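Narrative of accomplishments. A recurring question from our advisory board has been how the design workflow behaves on a single, concrete structure rather than in aggregate. To address it, we present the structure tokens for one chain from the evaluation set, followed by the sequence designed for it. No filtering or post-editing was applied between the two.
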């Protein structure tokens, strides 16, 4: 029973991570569209609303998602004897740092657009957003094609192993550590 619950928890955890990737992809598309809109229309009410929503998402949800991967998905993979897998996870960890650094350059400009300012350099913003979009999309593709399947397999293997173990039994006469 406990093993079935662990497997269900692991499945729902990965479903949540996958759903977050879908949200990130949708916000990346919105960011790309916003960049095009700014080039064509400048800062208007639509750009302000989109910039605010996109900035809020990437500053909150996306950062929390990376923390979740770093603490819940990557550790088991880093313990693997598969050197290529460990190298891929290390690269993704480095990507998280680059994504954060890129975001820190973009976020103030989006906050300015959300506030109605147009002091940003459109070409510089387009370049920064293009780099961010490419890195995030490649990162997600690598996680979904290699990392998540490997992590799911490890979680399933651990759940099967736990299912074969007898339940722990505690007795009143157990020695105290104090």
């Amino acid at each position: 029973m406990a093993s079935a619950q662990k497997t269900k928890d692991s499945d729902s955890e990965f479903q949540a991570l996958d759903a977050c990737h879908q949200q990130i992809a949708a916000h990346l598309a919105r960011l790309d569209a916003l960049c095009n809109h700014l080039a064509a229309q400048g800062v208007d009410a639509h750009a302000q609303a989109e910039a605010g929503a996109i900035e809020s998402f990437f500053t909150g949800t996306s950062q929390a998602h990376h923390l979740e991967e770093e603490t819940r998905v990557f550790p088991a993979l880093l313990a693997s004897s598969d050197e290529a897998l460990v190298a891929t996870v290390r690269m993704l960890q480095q990507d998280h740092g680059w994504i954060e650094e890129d975001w820190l350059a973009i976020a103030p400009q989006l906050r300015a657009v959300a506030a109605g300012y147009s002091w940003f350099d459109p070409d510089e913003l387009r370049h920064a957003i293009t780099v961010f979009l490419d890195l995030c999309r490649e990162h997600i593709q690598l996680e979904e094609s290699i990392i998540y399947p490997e992590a799911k397999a490890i979680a399933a293997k651990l759940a099967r192993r736990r299912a074969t173990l007898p339940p722990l039994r505690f007795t009143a006469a157990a020695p105290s550590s104090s």
